[in-house]
Structure formats: structure tokens, C-alpha cells
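User: Predict the structure for this protein chain, please.
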Amino acid sequence: MMRTSILDKPDFIVLGGHKCATTSLNYYLQQHPEIYLAQIKGLDFFNREGNQGVKEKQNNIPTTIEQYRELYNDMTTEKVAGEVSSVYLYSERACQTIKKYVPSTKLIAILRNPVDRALSNFKVRYKDPKTRNYQDIFEESKILSLGLYSNLISMYFEEFERSQIRIFLFDEVTKKPETFFPSLFEFIGVDPNFKPDSSVILRHGDEPKLAFLNSLLLGQKSFIKKSAGAILKPFTTPDRRRDIFFKVRSILPTKNYKKVEIPQDIKRKLGDFYQEDILKVQDLIGLDLSHWLNGNF
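Assistant: Here is the predicted structure, written as C-alpha cells:
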């Protein structure tokens, strides 16, 4: 019987969840000089091991443990290495593969009020506000299920030591950086006094007033994005270009967003749907989630 190859990297893994600020968190972690982060956010190797699909081949995503190990070969002076995913929290396969290869790694999960999470997910899936009917969210079983955290947390608690797992709330990431980052960095094992630029929000939850402007500035095939990249390339490093783009991506479109008002009856129905699970999560993680239960959505 072949012995499992135990990895010494990554030192930490962000498990998710989905629509819980993992894209922004990935950017913040990259800023810390003592952290080496896998260069592709959403590698999802532990959920993909052995896959040989078109997506993996086109994007050079590692599907073997040997390929995955090579991701950390470029570490130099960094103290720890990590990876950020938005899907591991939901995957039994990922849970088992992480335990198989990195059983001692530190695990981090971000949980968002499931009502807000579901509505954010729904708005992304149905982008056109003119045809979007919020009542239809109750027919979206997948969207709803992604906010049922209790069984997912229990799955990881059963496979890993509780001391290896740290649960944070979405509001800590977005509204309390002064306490969130020191706590996160201390858990990871790096300088807790480092203050990343957390003003950048990479996935905005509100509605764009002018959709074409967002596409022009942020779209993957945007002419402006490609042209700016070509102009800056001779004078900047890839990391610096990334930082500039993220700043533009966050700041310029801010004026182009408007708050979306969600019908209160939809929020109440979602709150009723999630109430039992929220109580279970509260007991599991030992954090006060009363603000999720009392209608402060």
C-alpha cells in the first residue's frame, strides 16, 4: 500500500464560504510580507484532485499532488504559505483531501448572515434588476443551501482539532479591520501588527447604476483594462499592476453603485428559513449570532 505524501505547505487554508469576502481577503493576505499566497485564488485543488477537465488544463490548475506542491517552490523570506478558496467549506471531498495531505494545517472560515449571503448570490445570478423577482429565490435550492452552515462546520470539526479551526464573521472582515486582522494574523502565525490596505472591496454587493461602465472598467475583456496593462507593463512589476488595478476596480465604480432595497417580507421569510440552522451554528462556534436572528439583515 502506497504511503500518503504529507505536505508541509500550505500552513493555512481559507475554506470559504461563498459570497463571504474571500476575494477581498485573498488580496489583503497578499499584502502581508510574511505570507506567501498561492498566486491563483480559487485553485480549489483539494476539491479537484485527479480532475483532467478543460477548465483545469486551460488555466494551468494543478490536479496532482506533485503539481500542487510546486506552487510553493517560489517561497523566499515569507514565514507561512496559504491558499484561499470559496468552495472548500461545502465539499466533503475537500475536507477529506485536506486531512489526507495537510492534516495539521490551520483552517479559516468566514460566515456571513445567510439571509444577506443568499440575496447577494441571487443578485449576482440574476443581474438584470428589471426582470429579477426576489420571490423566486425560494425556488433556488442551491443558493439557499449555501447558507446552511451547521452541517458543514460539524464536518470539519469532526475531522480536525478544534484548535486548528478559526471561524470569523463577515462583518468582522468588512467593518472591524482593527480587530479582525490582528486576530487573523496571530492565528496564522505572522506579525499581527501589520495593517493591510482594506479599503479595497473587490466584489461590490450593490447594484451598478450604469452596467456598461462596470463592464468597461472591470470586465475581463475590457479594452481599458488591457490598454492600461500594456502601458504600465514597462514601468511596473506584476504585483504593482495588480495593486493599481484593484484600486481602480474598487474606487472608481463606487460612485456608480446604488443601494438595492429588498422587500421586507422576503427578508423575513429567509430569516425564518435559516433560524433553526443559525441557532445550531451559534452553539457550534460559540459566537453570538443574535444579530442574525433579530431581523438586522
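Strands lie at 12-16, 35-37, 80-84, 106-111, 165-169, 207-208, 257-258.
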